[in-house]
Amino acid sequence: MPSLFEFRLTRADSPFWAVALHDGHQISPPLAPYLLLDDEQRLREEDPYTACMAELPVNQLFVGTSRFQLDINRAIDGAVYLRPDQAWGLQVWKEKLPEHILQQLYQEHEQIYTQIDQWIQETIDTHGFFVVFDVHSYNAKRESRDEVIDAAANPQVNLGTHYNKPLWRPLIEEFIKSVSKQQLLESPIDIRENVKFKGGNLAQHLTKKFGDYGCVLSVEFRKDFMDEWTGLPYMPTIQEYKQLMLHALKDLQENSVHGNTR
């Protein structure tokens, strides 16, 4: 059977990585007959346009496969949503997936993590450290399309930093400082740490294995850049988020050049 996991890798001479693990919407043909959810239902919980925001002049890993097929930001035992409680109450599959398909998905989860480990180790060997921008988005209108967002509970930018070692605190502060001095649609940006999310499996894995040599900044954008119920994008806002990331990258690069990352 052909691969069930699609991704795009772009390498650069840089210690920085930009990843969009949930941007994908693809369902592989062998799994399509088993899928119960329609495109709109899946799109609501995916992170469309995050690859655009993460399209930075650094190493890039953008996943094309939908998280509803294989979610590599979860540990392997939860990477395939087999129960509604794993998928926001949604029943993903019409019937139980064949065992050979399920085992291939789990195998490909292991393979991509082996590859990621290799890429990060190569980055450490070349540059001495690494920084991952782990770009995601999240819904803030759970009840209805017309719901008024509770801004106190839903920051525009949720920065997941929980699993990083304390030695990376100066770099984290530099990122927050960079974002805070920018504006979004001519207004100050509300960025806070670990309010909605602390970081997923990728962050936990990399910081546990390579935490002395780098950190993962899990950047969760509130879905102000789209209609989260229909998927309609607001391109000017998407471009502003991308510019925000570019400016933050520039600030961190300038900082790291002077040896201040560690």
From TrEMBL:
Keywords tagged on the record: Hydrolase
Matches recorded under Pfam families: FGase
Cross-referenced InterPro entries: N-FG_amidohydro
Gene3D superfamilies named among the record's database cross-references: Zn-dependent exopeptidases
GO molecular function, one term: hydrolase activity
Record protein name field: N-formylglutamate amidohydrolase
Species the sequence originates in: Sphingobacterium allocomposti
